[in-house]
Amino acid sequence: MQVTKLFKDGNSQLVRIPSDMAFDRNDMEVEIERVGDELRIRPVSRYLNRVIEKFSAFSEDFMAEGRGDNGGNDRDRP
Questions:
Q1: Which of 14, 38, 60, 66 has CB atoms 3.0–4.6 Å from 7's, for a disulfide?
Q2: Phi, psi of 45 (to 5 degrees)
Q3: What are the pLDDT digits (tens) for 31-59?
Q4: Where are the domains of the chain?
Q5: Rounded to the nearest 5°, which phi and psi values hold at 48?
Q6: Distance (Å, rounded) from C-alpha 46 to C-alpha 52?
Q7: Alpha carbons within 13 A on the beta-carbon side of 69
Q8: What whole-number distance in Å separates Cα of residue 38 and Cα of residue 32?
Q9: Is 53 in contact with 45 (CB distance < 8 Å)?
Q10: pTM recorded for the entire structure
Q11: How far apart are alpha carbons 22 and 11 in whole angstroms?
């Protein structure tokens, strides 16, 4: 595990990523997620495997009782 520094730039906080851990490109988009006290940074995935990964996190009984009556769509009402 490596140690690095945080910096402040206006209202933003920056983190120095050591060169041996840097992403290949500087112009790519990344997503950042807070999980407890960790920050996870990863390239934005444009592939369906990320969708499948997200759906796999739902429990087996997710929405087993259906959506219920959500009142319908307001556009259908006069």
A1: 14
A2: -95, 130
A3: 999 999 999 999 887 767 677 778 888 88
A4: 25-61
A5: -65, -20
A6: 12
A7: 1
A8: 10
A9: no
A10: 0.50
A11: 23
